[in-house]
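A.,

Following up on our hallway conversation. Structure tokens first:
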């Protein structure tokens, strides 16, 4: 199939003017090109059926951009880590949505490339992926992508995407305080929002708590230990402070009524990250029973100098130290006995998890110093 003469002429003129990106509206049969002078629109005039005509258009674009008429090189997915920025610029000229997705996932993504890719294809998954790149977050596109994702949130139904979105848009400099507070309010209806906050703003949640009694009583002594290089004292100080108490209260709120397995897994990972300094050897993969036994041994080990420094200050802090050690071991190993055999969600899932989450939440309340 040959291109219509007017289409061939316009496309050649457009390509001669070195466009930055191209997109095709297949339903309206219009090709758009982005240049430094603005946007160009080319109505297409198929000489036959739309699908093969568009294939012919894309072969022409591919020949210009890549030197081959074979269209979008799908093998590029296996090479994304090796593409240069020049390769990415060429992919923007194919009028191919999958090529734009490849750019969003590229390790070579820049703020300017993100701007062009976003013009070529506005898509929530692309926006999330691009906000995983520091240069984009800190550039002009960061707030643009974050604003889009916030507006799109009401249409997200999967907990995993909600948690990802909230965590990503809460990165510094992307949202105003008012929008953050609005997202926090939405969490009351859908606690997957809370998980994003726990991960992104662990020490700066919109609602702060009241410090634990031990923090009021021992903060000077704990600060002295921190200055001497005791990471356990630093974590204890952190978790007993007003911000730490707010974090624990939010963690407990999520575990009180999680809706899906994704929410449970993600919030347990958030707890492991929060308490990671208490387990410097790395993540655990253990049941709640094994974690509790190990924590008891860990606290009673007289050779553990960091623990003993705190116990010498106040022996009554042993349960708090054990609780931190248990929470530091949070992860899939705790829930594997249930999730490994069941895909239940909602009320049934919570019922199956009760023997695990009840003792786990007791450790949370121990650190909140709640009876």
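Then the amino acids I'd put at each of the 371 positions:
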């Amino acid at each position: 199939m040959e291109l219509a003469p007017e289409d061939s002429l316009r496309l050649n003129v457009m390509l001669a003017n070195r466009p930055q990106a191209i997109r095709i509206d297949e339903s309206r049969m219009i090709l758009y090109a982005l240049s430094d002078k603005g946007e160009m629109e080319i109505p297409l005039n198929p000489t036959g059926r739309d699908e093969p005509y568009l294939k012919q258009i894309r072969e022409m674009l591919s020949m210009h951009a890549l030197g081959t008429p074979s269209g979008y090189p799908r093998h590029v997915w296996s090479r994304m880590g090796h593409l240069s920025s020049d390769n990415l610029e060429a992919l923007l000229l194919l009028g191919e949505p999958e090529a734009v997705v490849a750019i969003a996932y590229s390790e070579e993504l820049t703020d300017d490339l993100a701007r062009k890719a976003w013009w070529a294809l506005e898509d929530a998954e692309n926006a999330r992926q691009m906000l995983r790149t520091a240069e984009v977050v800190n550039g002009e596109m960061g707030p643009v992508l974050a604003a889009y994702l916030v507006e799109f949130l009401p249409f997200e139904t999967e907990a995993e995407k909600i948690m990802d979105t909230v965590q990503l848009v809460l990165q510094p400099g992307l949202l105003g305080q008012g929008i953050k507070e609005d997202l926090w309010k939405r969490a009351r209806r859908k606690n997957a929002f809370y998980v994003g906050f726990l991960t992104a703003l662990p020490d700066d949640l919109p609602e702060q708590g009241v410090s634990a009694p031990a923090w009021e009583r021992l903060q000077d002594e704990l600060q002295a230990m921190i200055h001497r290089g005791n990471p356990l004292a630093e974590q204890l100080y952190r978790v007993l402070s007003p911000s730490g108490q707010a974090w624990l209260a939010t963690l407990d709120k999520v575990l009180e009524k999680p809706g899906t397995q994704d929410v449970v897994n993600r919030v347990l990972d958030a707890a492991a990250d929060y308490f990671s300094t208490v387990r410097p050897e790395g993540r655990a993969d253990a049941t709640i029973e094994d974690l509790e036994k190990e924590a008891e041994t860990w606290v009673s080990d007289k050779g553990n100098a960091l623990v003993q420094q705190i116990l010498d200050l106040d022996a009554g802090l042993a349960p708090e130290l054990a609780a931190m050690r248990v929470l530091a071991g949070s992860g899939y190993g705790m829930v594997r006995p249930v999730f490994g055999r069941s895909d239940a969600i909602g009320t049934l899932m919570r019922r199956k998890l009760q023997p695990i989450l009840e003792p786990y939440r007791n450790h949370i309340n121990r650190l909140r110093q709640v009876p």
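The chain has 20 helices and three strands. Curious whether your intuition agrees with the design.

B.
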